[in-house]
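@channel anyone free to eyeball this complex?
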Amino acid sequence: MSAEEEENAAELKIPDEFLKAKCLMNCEVSLILEHKYEQLQQMADDPMNQMSQVFEKSLQYVKRFSRYKNPDAVRQVREILSRYQLAEFELCVLGNLCPETVEEAIAMVPSIKTRGRAHDDEAIEKMLNDLSLIKKFE
Amino acid sequence: MFFHMVLERNMQLHPRHFGRDLRDKLVAKLMKDVEGTCSGHHGFIVAITGIESVGKGRIRDGTGFVVFPVKYQCVVFRPFKGEILEAVVTMVNKMGFFAEAGPVQIFVSNHLIPDDMEFQPGDIPNYTTSDGSVKIQKESEVRLKIIGTRVDATEIFCIGTIKDDFLGVISDPGANS
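replying in thread with the prediction:
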């Protein structure tokens, strides 16, 4: 992709290197950053001093908006979503926002309908059901 | 959205660091230099999670400094146009409101707030629907869509909207109190 103007996540038009990179859900970022924070705490007396503002803000944000707290649940979410031939980016948007209805899911990730893949409403419904089950049994 | 990716950087190291713990010095300097920075292209570099490889060092002419190409894995945050995400409201005024999603600031203009929500000035400025059922104030959590990004060398700034289906307030700090 050349021009910045063409970028549109709703149509999955994001720069190639991001499309190929591994996308992370908020709950996964939370696990990574918490781990790193603990490491920093062990090394320095005052970890707040060591952290950049970007790190601090990101940590607060992902803690606040993590849908799943338990590491096993996080792993399950990724495993279940990855059965549905989603792009990494779509998978993470769904995992982050946890839509409850098919219409909501399509509004959040319009590209699941447009790319001519085998995503009928039933498949999407099943996917959302699977997701809400994990949440219930967490 | 957060991504885990491999980036490369040429690190300059002073000769006084050459010795047994050269690699540690290099990694420490890398963390200090790049964590917390923002580039228009990759977004915010939140944290380095690992070192992929450290290439052969090359002595720079005339200085004695050595340049090492270092490949590292890191967590980056990069907002995209068209992306839908959740954010926390940080400031409300009659022009609209500001929200924060991790390191990035998002402005939602009052034109992009549903028409039935009116600005209410006062101690806690807010946007409220005519029946008072929905309220946006500081610390509210909203779901919004990014419709524009302004990227410069060291900062990313976004414009968002909540005037669309399934967007708007997800939790109201006043509701529980």
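from a first look: Chain B touches chain A at residues 1-5, 35-38, 41, 44-47, 49, 75, 77-78, 80-86, 88, 100-103, 141, 143, 146, 149, 151, 164-166 (CB under 8 Å).
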